[in-house]
Amino acid sequence: MPSIFDFPDVYDAVLRSPLPQIEAEAQSVRKLLADRGIEGGHLLEIACGTCTHGILLARQGFDVAGIDLSPNMVNAAASRAEAAGVRLDVFHGDITDFQLNAGPFDAAIFMAETFPIITEYEAIANHFRCVRRALRPGGVYIIDIDAHRAGVRDAYKVWGERTVEFGDTCVEVWHENFPGDFVRGTSRLVMHCRIHDGEEVHETRDDWHIRRNYSATGAAGMKGFPSKAS
Length: 230
Prior knowledge:
- The protein is of the alpha/beta class.
- The chain folds into two domains: 4-143, 3-Layer(aba) Sandwich (Rossmann fold); 157-211, S-adenosyl-L-methionine-dependent methyltransferases (Single Sheet).
- It has helices spanning 8-14, 19-34, 52-59, 71-84, 121-134, 216-220, and strands spanning 41-46, 62-68, 88-92, 105-110, 135-143, 157-166, 169-181, 186-197, 200-211.
- Helix 5 (121-134) links the parallel strand 4 (105-110) and strand 5 (135-143).
- Helix 2 packs across helix 3 (52-59).
- The radius of gyration is 18 Å and the shape is globular.
């Protein structure tokens, strides 16, 4: 079944944060980097989607590149950057296994609170290796961590039924939560969309496993990383 990532406009309408929040987050990124001596420079947005943060930062003087697993999102990001009049290099790739010739980068960012979709410790370790390889020595990596407090659910629940409208498109949205794995600290969330676009109807289904906590012992077991938590 198609994914919401196959429909970038629907993704932005349903999941993207309001623009004032994104602007505030971009400002926070600028301040965090400026505090570490990075003002402007070469920046990589990881799991960029339609690259809303990256386009804002490109307008503010950064030389921005993005990487995302969805070809449709990559194409949409490139089109939106062109429409905004900014230069943006966007790459299609797996964020746990990538090597970009566009670097080295002064900084990297992972926004939209989606880092917890990387649930396996070895995949997390691979991700950090890729980022470390992409950054110059002394480069900075900023991760926007999910502040969700629901924890691991112990029962099935359907929630979040709503309708989102934009232009001539109407989207019915609902979610399913499944009992999580308390030992691994992961939850399972399935999001459904029914997209009414003129006379056409499309349905999407996205099944996400989300890590709600990270153990020191699990992190210590990642190959190539320190064996003791600090």
